[in-house]
Amino acid sequence: MISVKSEKEMTAMRISNRIVAELLQALEGMVTPGINTLELDRFADDFIRTQGAVPAFKGYTVPGLPPYPAAICASVNSCIVHGIPSDHIILREGDIIGIDVGVYKDGFYGDSARTYRVGKVSAAAEKLLQTTRQALEKGIKAAREDARVGDISHAIGSFITSKGYYVADNLTGHGIGRQLHEEPMIPNIGFSGKGPRLKRGMTIAIEPMVNIGTNRVVERGWEFFVADDSLSAHFEHTVLITGDKAEILSSC
Ligand code: MF3
Ligand code: CO
Hints:
Blueprint: H1 7-28, H2 37-50, E1 54-55, E2 72-76, E3 79-81, E4 96-105, E5 108-117, H3 123-142, H4 149-162, E6 166-167, E7 173-175, E8 182-186, E9 203-206, E10 209-211, E11 217-220, E12 223-226, E13 232-234, E14 237-240, E15 247-248
Antiparallel strand pairs: 1-4, 2-4, 3-12, 4-5, 6-10, 7-8, 7-9, 9-14, 10-13, 11-12, 14-15
Helix pairs in contact: 1-2, 3-4
The chain binds 2-amino-4-trifluoromethylsulfanyl-butyric acid and cobalt (II) ion.
The site of cobalt (II) ion has 5 residues, from loops.
C-alpha cells in the first residue's frame, strides 16, 4: 500500500523537509577546499538537533551491514551515494561532493540531496551536475496525479541517456512518510505508462544518480562507487503529489 497523507501529515512532512532544505543550504558555504567530511557531518548533526529533529540516517539498518554511523552521506567524486563521513576525507579544489540528508521530526521523514562543487570544477564535472539536476526536474515534472511511476522513471532515464550519461544500476528513489523508505520504489529508468499510479497526498523522494563512464556500480560496505571510477552526481527532492504540479517539500 502506498500511503496517502492527510493535511496534518502534509504539514509534518513540510516541516521535516524544510529542515533538510535549510541544512543543505547552510552546507553550501562550508564545502570548500581543506574541510573534511566528518566536520560537515558534525555541523549537520548539531543543526538537525537544534531544530528539535533527529538525523534519520544515523543508526539506520539494512541486513548485513552495521548501523549507518552518521547524520549525512558525503559521497566524493566516483562515490555515487552513502559515502561515510571521515576526517581522512579532505575536500580538494575540483572535487564534487554529493551530500544526502535525512531528518525525522514528529513522526515524519524528510530526505534530500545535492551535489556541490569544491571551488572551481572541470567542464566535465560542471556538465554532469547540470544534467543530473535537470534530470531531477524532468522527474518532478512527470510526478503528477494519475501519472504512473514509470512516467517519472522514463522522464529521468531517457533524458540522462540522451546526454550520453549512465543511470547508476540498482539505486532508486522511494516513497517516504512515516518511514524513510516506503512503497513505491522510484527507478531512474523505466517505461511510461507502467507501474503504480500516483494519487494526490502521496509523498515520494525522486533521486537520479548519474555516472559519466558506466552504469555499473561497486559496493564496499555502505558505500557505492562507479565501477570505472568516473564521476557521479546525485540530486534528490521529496515531493508531494497534488492535483496540479508536485509541491517540492525539500526546498527553501
Ligand atoms: N537518500 C538516501 C536513500 O534514500 C539515503 C539513505 S542513507 C541510509 O537511500 F543510511 F539511511 F541508508
Ligand atoms: Co532517498
